[in-house]
Amino acid sequence: MKRIVTIQDISCVGKCSLTVALPIISATGVEAAIIPTAVLSTHTMFKNFTCKDLDDQILPIAKHWKDEGITFDAFYTGYLASSGQIQKVLTLINELRQKGNLVIVDPAMADNGKLYPAFDSKFPSEMAKLCASADIILPNITEACFMTNTPYRAEYDEKFAKEVVEKLAEQGAKKIVLTGAEFGGKYGVLTYDSEKDEYYTYFQEKLNASFHGTGDIFSSTFTGLLISGKSMQESVSIAADYTAECIRITAEAPNANWYGVDFERAIPYLIKRAES
Ligand code: PXL
User: Fold this and answer.
1) What is the pTM of this model?
2) Whose CA is closest to 146, among 158, 135, 134, 137?
3) 29: CA distance to ligand 1 center in Å?
């Protein structure tokens, strides 16, 4: 059985990071090992939240796994709590990575032109270092701009999106999956494979609703499917369709909560697509 280790925080309430990565990766038929990098009472879009950094556990966990001979098909990182933590995650990956393993990084740190509340302005350059060593990164346009020192634009064209994506490739990432890409009246995902110099786009109907945590749902689905054996293009398109299905279900629910999507109710849809 394939095994991923996903490294991100656990927000006890909030339907993001590990609380979505675990069930979604499991639904794709892949084992999900975890490293919780911090425990938060909720995600940081709530007015208040508690946060206990688990920084000091990362390298001891890596050492134990190495002693046990535990290996992974992929390392998948999401929200990380501090710049220092990024450095430790890089060390962990270098310690455990073996030939043929994939490193997949969702630089979850910003959206709509703004960094998430817990981060300072130095954080994106540290995250850019992790992305530089990755096989695949999954930024949105805000994160892509922050990591390449490109002034953020709320509206942009295809040329701008490609310029930013190619800067990320120059910095070291092999494949870039730009999520929530919106230009020329189209909405979806723009993927660039720097080794083949090839673009792939998957456009969707733009839904009139947006919720927290959908980036994590996309990245977890994409990662699980890819490691289960689907191609890049299949993984991107199924992940985008599943994320859209989660948003649709949540927008139609009379008593949906504001802090995350009802991804649970769309899991049968995901399993059907994953098995196709
Ligand atoms: O979904 C990204 C995410 C993950 N973890 C925490 C967050 C956020 C987004 O705000 O606050 C703690």
Assistant:
1) 0.97
2) 137
3) 25
